[in-house]
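Researcher: Sequence recovery benchmark, item below. Answer with residues only.
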């Protein structure tokens, strides 16, 4: 059973609620806090990603001479490289 104070508080808040425009909806303080938290999280993730990408030292290995097409074997044979596992044939 609600107390007298709760009933008194509710009866005082009802007229205040009627003063608001019912066609206007705003996110309010909670919407701003959620948006600010998301923006801060994205900023921290971008900062962390930038730091991690700066630590990467990548040097591309030069292509083998004679392999201009970019294929792994310039001679065109379908033999697997040494040490590579052969794929099982279906059929």
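Model:
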């Amino acid at each position: 059973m609600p107390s007298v104070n709760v009933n008194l508080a509710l009866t005082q808040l009802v007229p205040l609620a009627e003063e608001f425009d019912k066609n206007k909806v705003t996110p309010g303080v909670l919407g701003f806090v959620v948006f600010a938290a998301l923006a801060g999280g994205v900023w921290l993730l971008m900062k962390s990603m930038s730091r991690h990408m700066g630590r990467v030292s990548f040097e591309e290995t030069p292509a083998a001479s004679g392999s201009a097409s970019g294929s792994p074997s310039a001679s065109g044979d379908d033999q697997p490289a040494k040490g590579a596992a052969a794929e099982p044939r279906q059929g």
